[in-house]
Each structure stands twice: as C-alpha cells, then as structure tokens.
Amino acid sequence: MVSDVYFLPISDQESSASLAQKTRAILAATPYADIIQPKKICAIKQHFGEQGNEGYLRPEIAKSVIDLVKSRGGLPLMVETNTLYRGQRSNSYHHLMLAHEHGFGIDQIGAPIVIMDGVNGQNQRSQPIPGQHFDRVFTVSDLDFFSSIFVLTHVKGHVGASIGGAIKNLAMGFASRAGKLAQHADFRPTISKKRCVKCGQCAKHCPTGALALEDRHPEGRHLRVTLDLCVGCGECHIACPHDAISFKWGSEGRLLQEKMAEHALGAVINLPGRVVYLNFFMHVTQQCDCWSGENPVLYPDLGIFASLDPVAIDRACYDLALDFYGEDIFKKMWPDLDPTAQVSHGERIGLGTQNYHLQRVS
Q1: What distance, in Å, lies between the first and last C-alpha atoms of the chain?
Q2: Under a CB-based contact definition with an 8 Å cutoff, are residues 159 and 336 in contact?
Q3: Are 63 and 113 in contact (CB under 8 A)?
Q4: How many Cβ atoms from other residues are within 10 Å of residue 142's Cβ?
C-alpha cells in the first residue's frame, strides 16, 4: 500500500492571505474536494490557539477550506473539543469566546463553530478498535453526523509526543474528556528534591492543582504533589526553570504516542477515504499551541502537505524536515522521545502507511 502525499513549499513568514491562496492551490492539485457531499455537513477541524499563543493557524486558512466546501454545495462546520486542563478552552463557553477573539467568528470565516464534546467534555461514544492498548476508545459522538472532514494541523514540537502532527490532532482533538484522560494516564512527573528550589513556577502553570506550593507546612515551604489530580499534560516540566521535573520519556512517552495513534484510529475508523489532512509545517516551535507562555519560533517555514492518510502525511513531514533542515529537529527539541513512534504504531494498527508517493505542487 502506498499513499499519495502532496507538498507545496512556502517561504518563511508568508502572510495569512498568501497561505490561504496556497491552501487553495494545493487542494486544487488534488482530487480531495470530491469527498464533499452537497447538502451534507463537512467538518473542518483545527486548533483555535490557547490564550496568549501565537502559533495557531490563522482564520484566513480555515476560510479558504470553508469556501471550497461551499463551492461544492456542502455545509461547512468548524469543530473542536475542549481541553483536559483548566484554561480558556476547558469549557465550551470560554472556548467559543476565545475562538471569536482569535478571528474565528461566523462573520469572519463564514461558518459556525461546534465544540463537539459538549459544555464540559461529556459528549462521547465508545468506539471499538483493533488496538494493542485499547479494544475501544472514547471519542466524540458528533463524528457520526459528518459526511466528510478536513483536518487542519499546525506541525510543531510536543512535550510528550515529540511531533504534534495530524495523528496528535486527531487523537486529542476528537477524544472526549475520558479519552484524553486515558491517553495521559501513565504520563506522570518526578520531582528532584536536589534540584527543586520551591520557586512555585510549576504550581503556577499546573492546570489542575496537582502541584501546589504551601507556605505554612511544618517543614517550611513545601511543594505538594497530588498525582490523582495530574492529567499528564507536561506543563510543569516546561515551566520549571531548574530542570527539577522529569518524566520517564522513553517508556511513558512511547506509550502516550501509541495511545494517541489508537485514539486517532477510533476517530476516523468509520470514515474511510472521507478525511482530508492538511499539515502546515510553519512557525516551528518546541511546544504545542496549547502552551500560552513564551514559545519562540526555532526554524524557518517548510510548506503545506495534503493527504488522505494521517500516517503518510506525518511521515512525509518528518522525512522532508530531515532533508530541509539537515538534522532531526524533533530529536533535537525532545532528545529523549522517538519522533517516529506515532507513525510506526499507527501503521501497525491499520491507521495508515508510512509508504507514500510525494507529489510536489508548484
């Protein structure tokens, strides 16, 4: 089995208008618009960006896909799910307000938005899959109502998965709260007593209260760790300025990535050939778009990828990045993680193939 992957290069820091035009161009070079069915809902899935984050894909890009759906007589609907951690996207009310603030209002993009997992993440279905870690996963039940889906992904680094690509977008973006918890269940921090100076930065950034700084503890200033509250998001590791917080990257990181691949399969298993993946390899940062703190751009922009196969498109992104940058940037950003774990496991369970035919679009 060989999957087609289309690639259109972009220049560094192109305007949103130019990126929208190139999104139209790469889609025009593919037959993928044929998945759109007249008078049927076509979902457009993308991350709207956390409060303070600058890396999210701009609304002009989403609008170019929305306009394509309309031109084919389809009914475009922007979709997303709430986050596991507390923040502006942890419930539908604040999530929708933030999306509007970031330019995704219906007047700007021409399509409504639905937060698929409900007000607080409880809307779900139990989806059977042929997985190795799960025989069923919890995904959002709204997936049953879409005739087709476009998945728009900003490719970047990720604290637990090395690469935040199409597979990660499917896995977290279409999982219910229970599904997100199941993916993160084994990802837990270890605090070095030798390095920890109890500055409180980890507690400040912990979204669930699993880490809390106590000033009135009998032993003096004390960092309280409540693992039952931990959701394995990794933000404490990112926030710690003293390198005092670590994870078992080799084992826990691989397990997280494999669980992601299985949840990604659960999201699209009933939609064969009806999901188009668009990966935007640009604004390359070490952290994902959920991170609201400082997240500098580390590498120049590469290009836009399109495919019907999430494994093939993520593999192509990785391979072309090796050639373009002359080094494994994901291994450099996260040296203890295997950047190929998601695609390898995805291939094993039937999510897609790592064998692809690259078609360059000019």
Answers
A1: 26
A2: no
A3: no
A4: 21
pLDDT score for 220: 74
Where do the domains of the chain lie?
3-184+249-360, 190-246
* Class of 3-184+249-360 in CATH: alpha beta
Q: Roughly what angle, to the nearest 10 degrees, separates helices 177-184 and 254-268?
A: 150
Residue 296, burial from CB neighbour count under 10 angstroms (0-12, 13-18, 19+): exposed
What does the pLDDT read at residue 231?
74
Supply the DSSP symbol for 141: G
Decide if pLDDT at 233 tops 80.
Answer: no
Strand partners of residue 356: 3
Q: What is the pLDDT of residues 167-218, one digit of tens each?
A: 999 999 999 988 888 888 777 788 998 899 999 999 987 878 889 988 876 6
Tell me which architecture the domain covering 190-246 has in CATH. 2-Layer Sandwich (3.30)
The answer to whether the CB of 43 falls within 8 A of the CB of 62 is no
Tokens of 109: 């993009």
The DSSP line for 314-356 is HHHHHHHHHHHHSS-HHHHHSTTS-TTHHHHHHHHTTS--S-E
CB atoms within 10 A of CB 265: 27
The region, left, alpha or beta by phi > 0 then psi within -120 to 50, assigned to residue 25 is alpha
Residues 274-280, mean pLDDT to the nearest whole number: 98
What does the angle CA 347 – CA 350 – CA 351 come to, to the nearest 5 degrees?
Answer: 75
**Which residues, in sequence order, are bridge partners of residue 163?**
157
Query: What tokens does 187 get?
Result: 């990802």
